[in-house]
């Protein structure tokens, strides 16, 4: 009987033959058109496939959490991807931004927290790195939880030159989890981060110590 795990681990990018790659569109994002073929699990090569690839900068997402008040900071802004499938395209989300310079993911996290929420991050805790939609996009997400002092946080933030209109709100952790379970919070990064927080909240609060 074939060990499927060993077969999967044997494949690398060398087992994909990119015959051609052209840019079909280039704006803020880019769409590439590829013709390719790849090796098959049963041996040999598959047929030539035409695929469109949505090319994006890698992203950084941060869940700001106040361990002393046991509450999270969430942002809210309109998202065009939700226009046709949601009655409310203003989504509750994490602080987030793209890595479009030579900044590290950690530097982007601190910058975006200041720009989008007026927050200073006290410490960053890596959660996971993942591909949100690898069937058609090369975006790679660096996901964090950050400890913050949320006293006085709120209001409208964002960069006017980028057309940002971001509302910042404070949520008791349990209320945020209720919003997740009810479907009010329905984007992947926020769901993953809040679930991680539920699993790790006791350790985070214990390590935080007394409020500074």
TrEMBL record:
Binding positions for Mg(2+) per the UniProt entry: 96, 112, 116, 164
Nudix box, short sequence motif: residues: 97-119
Enzyme Commission code(s) on record: 3.6.1.13
Domain called Nudix hydrolase: residue spans: 55-193
Upper lineage: Bacteria, Pseudomonadati, Pseudomonadota, Gammaproteobacteria, Pseudomonadales
PANTHER family: ADP-RIBOSE PYROPHOSPHATASE (PTHR11839:SF5), UDP/ADP-SUGAR PYROPHOSPHATASE (PTHR11839)
GO MF terms held by the record: ADP-ribose diphosphatase activity; ADP-sugar diphosphatase activity; metal ion binding
Organism of derivation: Halopseudomonas pachastrellae
Cofactor(s) demanded: Mg(2+)
InterPro entries, per the entry: NDP_pyrophosphatase, NUDIX_hydrolase-like_dom_sf, NUDIX_hydrolase_CS, NUDIX_hydrolase_dom
Catalytic function, reaction form: ADP-D-ribose + H2O = D-ribose 5-phosphate + AMP + 2 H(+)
Name of the protein described by the UniProt record: ADP-ribose pyrophosphatase
General function of this protein: Acts on ADP-mannose and ADP-glucose as well as ADP-ribose. Prevents glycogen biosynthesis. The reaction catalyzed by this enzyme is a limiting step of the gluconeogenic process.
GO biological process terms, semicolon-separated: nucleoside phosphate metabolic process; ribose phosphate metabolic process
Top-level class of the enzyme under EC nomenclature: hydrolase
Gene Ontology CC entries for this record: cytosol
Pfam family, one: NUDIX
Sequence similarity: Belongs to the Nudix hydrolase family. NudF subfamily.
Secretion signal, residue range per the UniProt entry: none
